[in-house]
């Protein structure tokens, strides 16, 4: 059984009297342990796919199965619970909380799951060390480089041991050298068993993934 599956997914938005078809009958599967990239020009539907995968939105038509469960018709409360427990997000702009230090930012998803303070700290400490930030635990985001901020974001995405990690242009704000280091980290995590989908414009990222889904005008062309 696939870890995630889109079956004939359509997403349509009403723009006044006009219907905008953001996705047109998308179907694909994601197997456990895979790393897939999604590419396409601006407006091709990449962000819509990511929002649906992350249970931030629901399809107009079609079915989305996650871990064997059809989540495409769930209500907001159920989708929120899935986001908290089963999905990790990595953002281009990091989305760290500026008042919190490295450890505290990593702990945020665990806080919402009601995990004890001690267990949460130990988990966050392990993750901080895994992404190479064991020496920066007490620093806030403004005291970190771009690469370090993204490492915090990656650790935070892994905090809830998610079924899938979704990364939106994870190297988009980084220079070439730092971006390469983040790619190396993502590749290592995938080798260690993390299932990952990466939305990107960067062919270097696509090259390290198992396969690439290419979108044009809301349709899957490859």
Structure keywords:
222 residues, alpha/beta, Rossmann fold, six-stranded mixed beta sheet
Your description of this structure?
The protein is of the alpha/beta class and 222 residues long. It has one domain: P-loop containing nucleotide triphosphate hydrolases (Rossmann fold), CATH 3.40.50.300. The chain has seven helices and ten strands. It has helices at residues 46-53, 76-86, 102-111, 117-130, 146-158, 176-191, 203-208; strands spanning 4-15, 18-30, 35-39, 61-66, 69-70, 87-90, 164-168, 196-199, 211-216, 219-220. Strands 6-7-8-3-9-10 form a six-stranded mixed sheet. A hairpin with a 2-residue loop joins strand 4 and strand 5 (69-70). Helix 3 (102-111) crosses helix 4 (117-130), helix 4 packs across helix 5 (146-158) and helix 5 (146-158) packs parallel to helix 6. The two termini are 22 Å apart. The mean pLDDT is 94.
């Amino acid at each position: 059984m696939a870890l995630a599956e889109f079956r004939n997914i359509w997403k349509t938005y009403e723009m006044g009297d006009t219907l905008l078809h953001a996705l047109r009958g998308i179907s694909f599967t994601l197997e456990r342990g895979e790393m897939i990239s999604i590419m396409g020009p601006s407006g091709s539907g990449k962000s819509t796919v990511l929002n649906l995968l992350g249970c931030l939105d629901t399809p107009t038509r079609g079915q989305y199965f996650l871990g064997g469960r059809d989540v495409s018709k769930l209500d907001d409360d159920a989708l929120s619970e899935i986001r908290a427990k089963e999905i990790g997000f990595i953002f281009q702009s990091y989305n760290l909380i500026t008042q919190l230090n490295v450890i505290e930012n990593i702990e945020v998803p665990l806080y919402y799951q009601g995990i004890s303070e001690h267990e949460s700290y130990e988990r966050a400490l392990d993750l901080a060390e895994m992404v190479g930030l064991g020496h920066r635990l007490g620093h806030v985001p403004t005291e970190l480089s771009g690469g370090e901020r993204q490492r915090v974001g990656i650790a935070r995405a892994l905090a809830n041991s998610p079924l899938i990690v979704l990364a939106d242009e994870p190297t988009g704000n980084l220079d070439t050298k730092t971006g390469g280091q983040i790619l190396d980290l993502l590749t290592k995590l995938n080798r260690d068993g993390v299932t990952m989908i990466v939305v990107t414009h960067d062919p270097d990222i696509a090259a390290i993934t198992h396969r690439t889904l290419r979108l044009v005008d809301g349709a899957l062309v490859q």
